[in-house]
């Protein structure tokens, strides 16, 4: 996610890779960043010292350890007045603020991106911590808009959004794969079936956004009386496709809420 966001910002001409500082405990993980021209380190403290905006793109269980490394290797002046943008799953802004309370003047903004931002078609949301300023939010919005669409939301909606927009691509990939399998079963070559399925999903999604029509209306416009499409829709309803997708979103949202509960123990 960090690399996808960075690519989006670079693509829009907002930064150069020479302005980017990246840290990982494993030097091999930094090869691709180094190839882009970014400054790479194995010490998190050096990244914080050199940066005004720091993306926290680590797993929840190593977050505290990463911050402890910064605290033990930095003087207090070098960690003042930083904006931290958190992509850490399951950690609320309150959780992050508690861990970063020794960083004087630090502000937190939490974001929930998704993988299509890699190609500039992301769907992201963000919410401020208690000390984030309007300028901080404007900056985050500019960053996220460089990777697709974004929206400011209250934090209590993050789990539901995560289930739809962050987990959603996985559900859509399964749907596209199933369409492709169906095409192959009916005689299409795999490559053709996959291309047709993926293009159709992209076109249908753009129809939803461009027309502002209800999905039921758009569906009815495809279905003719006694035709092939309504027969396919009937098969989907018999297979409980609609209910299965709703269950998937619910399961993802509940899992996110579970991770949030665990994070309260930090």
From TrEMBL:
Its main location: cytoplasm. It catalyses: L-proline + NADP(+) = (S)-1-pyrroline-5-carboxylate + NADPH + 2 H(+); L-proline + NAD(+) = (S)-1-pyrroline-5-carboxylate + NADH + 2 H(+). GO terms for molecular function: pyrroline-5-carboxylate reductase activity. NADP(+) binds at residues 24, 57-60. It comes from Phyllotreta striolata. The lineage of its organism: Eukaryota, Metazoa, Ecdysozoa, Arthropoda, Hexapoda. Keywords: Amino-acid biosynthesis, Cytoplasm, NADP, Oxidoreductase, Proline biosynthesis. This is Pyrroline-5-carboxylate reductase. The keyword Oxidoreductase applies. Residues 155-259 form the Pyrroline-5-carboxylate reductase dimerisation domain. It comes from the Eukaryota.
């Amino acid at each position: 996610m960090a690399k996808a966001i960075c690519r989006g910002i670079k693509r829009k001409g907002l930064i150069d890779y020479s302005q980017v500082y990246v840290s990982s405990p494993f030097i091999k993980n930094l090869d691709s960043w180094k190839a882009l021209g970014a400054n790479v380190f194995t010490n998190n403290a050096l990244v914080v010292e050199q940066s005004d905006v720091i993306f926290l793109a680590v797993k929840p269980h190593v977050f505290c350890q990463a911050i402890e490394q910064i605290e033990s290797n930095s003087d207090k002046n070098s960690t003042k007045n930083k904006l931290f943008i958190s992509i850490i799953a399951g950690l609320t802004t309150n959780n992050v603020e508690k861990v970063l309370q020794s960083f004087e003047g630090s502000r937190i903004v939490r974001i929930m991106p998704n993988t299509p931002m890699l190609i500039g078609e992301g769907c992201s949301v963000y919410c401020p911590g208690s000390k984030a300023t309007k300028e901080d939010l404007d900056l985050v919005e500019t960053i996220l808009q460089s990777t697709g669409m974004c929206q400011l939301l209250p934090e209590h909606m993050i789990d539901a959004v995560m289930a739809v927009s962050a987990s959603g691509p996985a559900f859509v990939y399964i749907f596209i794969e199933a369409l492709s399998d169906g095409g192959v079963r009916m005689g299409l070559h795999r490559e053709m079936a996959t291309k047709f399925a993926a293009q159709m999903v992209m076109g249908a999604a753009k129809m939803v956004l461009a027309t502002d029509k209800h999905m039921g209306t758009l569906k009815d416009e495809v279905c003719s009386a006694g035709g092939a499409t309504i027969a396919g829709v009937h098969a989907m309803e018999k297979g409980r496709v609609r209910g299965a997708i709703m269950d998937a979103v619910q399961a993802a949202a509940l899992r996110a809420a579970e991770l949030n509960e665990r994070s309260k123990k930090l």
